[in-house]
Each structure stands twice: as C-alpha cells, then as structure tokens.
Amino acid sequence: MGFAAPVMAAAAPYLAAGSIVTGVTGSVMQGEAAAQSAGYMAQVARNNQIIAQQNANMALEQGTIKEEAQKEQTGARIGSMRAAYGAMGVDPNSGSALDVRSSAAELGELNAQTMKYNAHVQAWNDINQAESYGAQSRLYQDQEGWDTAGSILGGAGTVSNKWLQWQLMSGGGGFGSFTSNNSGTGS
Hints:
With 187 residues, this protein is mainly alpha-helical. The chain has helices at 4-87, 95-170, 174-181.
C-alpha cells in the first residue's frame, strides 16, 4: 500500500489533465452538434420560406385565372339569355329582360371579385407565413452562432473548473492556499 500513494500522487496531474481534455472535448463536440442542428433547422426554415412565397405567387395566379374564367362564364350566360329572349320574341334590351341580364352581370362580377379577393387573402397568409419562416431561420442562425460560442466558453469553464479542483486537491495554490494563509494561525 505504501507504493500506491506515491504513484497516485505522481499520476494525479496527468489524470487531471486527461479529465480536462475529455471535458473540453465533450463540451466542444456538444456545442458543435447543437450548432449543426441549428444550422440544419435554419436551412429547413429557409426552404419553408421559399415554398410559402411560391404558394403566395401561385395563389395570385390561380385567383387571376379563376376571376377570368368567372367573367367568361358570366359573359356566356348573358349571351345565352340574350339569345333565348330573342328566340322568344322579347326585346333583350328593355324591361325585365334587361333587368335580369343586368342582375346576372352584377352577380357574375361579384363572384369574380370574390375569387380575386380570396386569392389575395390566401397570398397574404402565405406571405406572412414566409416572413415567419424567414424570422425563424434568422433565429436558428443566431442560435447556431451562440451554440458555437457556448461550446468554446463551456470548454474554457471546464478547464478552469478542473484546474481549480486540481489546485485544491494538490494544495498547490488556488483558494486552498489563500484560505490557509488567512486562517488566523499566523503561519
């Protein structure tokens, strides 16, 4: 047993150094993994932003197509009414025949404008979603930088903590020697 104590005392600095290296390496690897995860999430959010913007553009295009189709359908309906009134010998440009055609035209225009409005609402929602994804991406990018910095600071903290522990255990300084010199014993 007398042999083990000197060997352990001689090995203590090397064991402490190994512990420091292991702790620092673990902190750095953990920070890098968190940074890579944040970078990946930032890219996913950027991709979602692009898709949401494309959805907004498609909503506007589809709204324009639906609006034009509605107007054509309304024009065809009014043309059919005019032909039917003419076939019945009714003047399509006066009286109730004119009122019915006017109402059909107004209703068709209202439907077309509603389709256009709905497309703009959908596009507005998609644009807001795209902006939200953009903000989320920027947050992940910031987190990526903080995770990297945190791993470096965590490694430095681990080194200082292990150094302090080694100093306290070995009696080689640190707070242990400070308190022993100021304990009031005068030594």
